[in-house]
C-alpha cells in the first residue's frame, strides 16, 4: 500500500521530474501565449490544499452532503469577492463560481437559457471567436454548442478585421437569434456592448459576454464594461485574472435559479472546492493597486509589441490592439503561422498559430497570436518588450530562410530542414536565455 504521507518526489519521481522539467521550461522560455499567465504562490497553495478531498453538491447552505461548514464559507467569500472585483451590486447581479472551466461555464449558460435547437450567434472562430460560441464547419458540428443548438456565426469585416456590426444586425434579422454571444479568443479590439444590446433587443434575445481573455482588463476599467449591457457574463480565471484554471458565470439576478440549476445538477457534479478557494484568492489580488498597475503595463506592453513589429516591417491585424493580445499576419511575407510557431518553439518562445479572418483553412493559418500577460507578470517593461519583438523578428527571418531552402512549401519539409540551422537557433536561444535568466 502506498504511503499517503510520502512526498511526490519520494512516491513518484517520474511525475516529479516531469513537473520540474516543465517548471524549467516555463522559467527559461518567453511565454507569449495570450491565454496563459503565471499564477501566484498563494493561488497554488489553495489549489494544492486539502479542499480537494471534499464533496459539496449544491450551493452554500443547501448541500447534499454533510461536513460543509468551511466549504460554505469559502464559496460565499468567493462569490462576494467576484462581485466586488467587478464592482457589481449584489442586488442586481449574482454569480456561480462552480464551473470547472470556461467551456463548461458557457455550456451551462446555454443549457440554462435555451431549449435544444434554439438559435445562437457568436463570433466565428476564424474571426477570433471561441469554439464554444457555436463553432461548426460546412461538414462538421465541432462544438457541443453547435450540436445541441442552431448556430449562425457573425464575422469581422474581411478588409479591416474589425467587428462587422452592420452585417450581424442584417443576419440577425433573418436568423432571429434567441441568444447572442460577444467576446472572443483572438480579437485585439474592444467591444461595442450597446450596439450588441440594441441588436439583441430587436429579437428579444439574451446577450452574453465571454470576457475570459480580457476579464482582468475589465476589472480595472481599461476596457468597456460588459456588465452595463449584458444579461450574462462568463469568464475563466487563469488568463488576465492570473488565478487558477476555473470558470465563473455572472448573471442578472432574475436568471439566478436557471443558471444555478444548470451548473448543478444539469451540467456538473460536485464543485472543485480547491479551485473555488483559489479563485477567491485571485479575486482578492484583483482589488489591489498592484494589480491595476500590472494590467496597465500589460496593455502598454501589447501596444509596444505592435509598434515595434510594425517598425520592423510586419503586419499587425487592425493595426494595433486595445487589450493584452495581438494578431500578427504573416501572409504578406508568404509564411504561415505554423512555420513561425515551429521556429519559435525550438528557440524557447511559446506562441500559437492563429487564423486571420480571411483564411480558407484553419489547418494552415496565416498568423500568430501573441499576448503580453505572462511576460508582464515576470516584470517585463516596454524596453524589454522591444527586445522581445526583435527576437521574434530574428525568428521570422530564420523561418523565411529555412522556407526558401526547403524542397517544398510543405510544413513537413520545413520541419525536416530546421535541424540544419542549429547555429542560428542557438544564437536566438541565447538571447532568450539572457532575458529570462535570473527572473
Ligand atoms: N485556449 C484558450 C485560448 O487560447 O483562448 C481558450 O479556450
Describe this structure in words.
The structure is a single chain. The chain contains 17 helices and 15 strands. The protein is 45% helix and 12% strand. It is of the alpha/beta class and 439 residues long. The strands form 4 sheets. A 7-stranded mixed beta sheet has the order 4-10-9-8-7-5-6, sandwiched between helices. The chain is globular, with a radius of gyration of 22 Å. The chain has helices at residues 8-11, 13-28, 41-47, 69-85, 102-113, 144-147, 165-175, 193-201, 215-219, 256-267, 273-286, 289-311, 337-346, 373-377, 382-405, 411-418, 422-436; strands spanning 30-31, 58-59, 62-63, 93-96, 119-121, 150-151, 179-182, 206-210, 232-236, 247-252, 315-316, 325-329, 349-350, 352-354, 367-371. β2 (58-59) and β3 form a beta hairpin. The mean pLDDT is 97. Residues 35, 102, 130, 185 line the site of D-serine.
Quickly list its features.
4-stranded antiparallel beta sheet; alpha/beta; 439 residues; 7-stranded mixed beta sheet; binds D-serine
Amino acid at each position: 500500500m502506498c504511503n499517503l504521507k510520502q512526498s511526490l518526489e519520494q512516491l513518484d519521481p517520474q511525475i516529479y521530474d516531469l513537473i520540474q522539467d516543465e517548471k524549467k521550461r516555463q522559467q527559461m522560455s518567453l511565454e507569449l501565449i495570450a491565454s496563459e499567465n503565471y499564477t501566484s504562490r498563494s493561488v497554488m497553495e489553495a489549489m494544492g490544499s486539502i479542499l480537494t478531498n471534499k464533496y459539496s453538491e449544491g450551493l452554500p447552505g443547501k448541500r447534499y452532503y454533510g461536513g460543509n461548514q468551511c466549504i460554505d464559507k469559502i464559496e460565499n467569500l468567493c462569490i462576494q469577492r467576484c462581485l466586488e472585483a467587478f464592482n457589481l451590486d449584489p442586488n442586481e447581479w449574482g454569480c456561480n463560481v462552480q464551473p470547472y472551466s470556461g467551456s463548461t461555464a458557457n455550456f451551462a449558460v446555454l443549457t440554462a437559457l435555451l431549449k435544444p435547437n434554439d438559435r445562437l450567434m457568436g463570433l466565428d472562430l476564424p474571426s477570433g471567436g471561441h469554439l464554444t460560441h457555436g463553432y461548426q464547419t460546412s461538414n462538421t458540428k465541432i462544438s457541443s454548442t453547435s450540436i445541441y443548438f442552431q448556430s449562425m456565426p457573425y464575422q469581422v469585416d474581411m478588409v479591416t478585421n474589425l467587428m462587422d456590426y452592420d452585417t450581424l444586425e442584417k443576419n440577425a434579422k433573418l436568423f432571429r437569434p434567441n441568444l447572442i454571444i460577444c467576446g472572443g479568443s483572438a480579437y485585439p479590439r474592444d467591444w461595442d456592448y450597446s450596439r450588441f444590446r440594441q441588436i439583441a433587443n430587436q429579437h428579444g434575445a439574451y446577450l452574453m459576454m465571454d470576457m475570459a481573455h480580457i476579464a482582468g482588463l475589465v476589472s480595472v476599467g481599461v476596457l468597456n464594461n460588459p456588465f452595463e449591457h449584458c444579461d450574462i457574463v462568463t469568464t475563466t480565471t487563469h488568463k488576465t485574472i492570473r488565478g487558477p484554471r476555473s470558470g465563473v458565470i455572472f448573471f442578472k439576478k432574475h436568471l439566478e435559479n436557471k443558471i444555478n440549476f444548470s451548473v448543478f445538477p444539469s451540467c456538473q457534479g460536485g464543485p472543485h472546492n480547491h479551485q473555488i478557494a483559489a479563485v477567491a484568492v485571485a479575486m482578492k489580488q484583483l482589488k489591489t493597486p498592484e494589480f491595476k498597475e500590472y494590467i496597465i503595463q500589460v496593455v502598454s506592453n501589447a501596444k509596444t509589441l505592435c509598434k515595434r513589429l510594425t517598425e520592423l516591417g510586419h503586419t499587425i491585424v487592425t493595426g494595433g490592439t486595445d487589450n493584452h493580445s495581438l494578431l500578427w499576419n504573416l501572409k504578406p511575407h508568404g509564411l504561415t503561422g505554423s512555420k513561425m510557431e515551429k521556429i519559435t518553439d525550438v528557440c524557447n518562445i511559446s506562441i500559437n498559430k492563429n487564423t486571420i479572418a480571411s483564411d480558407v483553412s484553419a489547418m494552415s493559418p496565416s498568423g500568430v497570436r501573441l499576448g503580453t500577460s505572462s511576460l508582464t507578470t515576470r516584470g517585463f517593461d516596454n524596453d524589454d518588450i522591444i527586445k522581445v519583438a526583435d527576437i521574434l523578428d530574428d525568428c521570422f527571418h530564420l523561418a523565411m530562410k529555412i522556407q526558401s531552402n526547403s524542397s517544398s512549401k510543405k510544413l513537413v519539409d520545413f520541419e525536416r530542414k530546421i535541424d540544419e540551422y542549429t547555429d542560428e537557433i542557438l544564437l536566438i536561444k541565447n538571447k532568450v536565455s539572457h532575458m529570462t535568466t535570473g527572473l
